[in-house]
Amino acid sequence: MVSTDRLLAFAAMSFLLIVIPGPSVLFVVGRALSQGRRAALTTVAGNTAGGYVLVVAVALGVGAIVERSVLVFTALKLAGAAYLVYLGVKAVRERGSLHASFTGDAPSRGGLRTFWEGFAVGVANPKTIVFFAAVLPQFVDHGAGSVPAQMLLLGLVFHVIAVTCDSLWGLTAATARGWFARSPRRLSLVGGAGGLTMIGLGVTVAATGREP
Q1: Which of 37, 55, 80, 88 could make a disulfide contact with 195, Cβ separation 3.0–4.6 Å?
Q2: Which residues, 6 or more positions from 200, have their beta carbon under 8 angstroms from its beta carbon?
Q3: Structural contact between residues 31 and 175, judged by C-beta atoms closer than 8 angstroms
Q4: What are the boundaries of each domain within the chain?
């Protein structure tokens, strides 16, 4: 099974990725501001379910190919690193647009519909897809048992962190919507800092190797 050191390192990198506002977070925040806490938490549940579908897909399919092929692994790693840097640069350049996500007004929807909309965002989140395909395999210990089982465990760790952080984003937005809406500059700073962190994460992914 995955060693404690690898698990902690993966948890730390996961936290860096999750804490940065991305498609899922902005969707949760939008639901919180327009429909309140319940809609935010239902959206988080849908996001988490959609994201774990990606984990299962990587563990049972793509992950096995990556695990066997150095070429595929390297290509995915570099593509993932480049995309993370791209997302970071884009976040820095468009940090002012975060304010629009906090001022939207959407009609109320039922819990099941909100869940499935969250699921769709989670399963199609490009940031998460890149992370699971290019980064997750790097933390697998090839001499410590089943590779798919290790990936499923790592994916579970990722989503425990994700559901905690996303829920806090949603609850904070629902509670302090007025405070955020009155200060676009605060949102701009959040977007800029998140973008720089994303760039740093992309560089780290590119520089990280894989043990044989």
Answers
A1: 88
A2: 88
A3: no
A4: 4-207
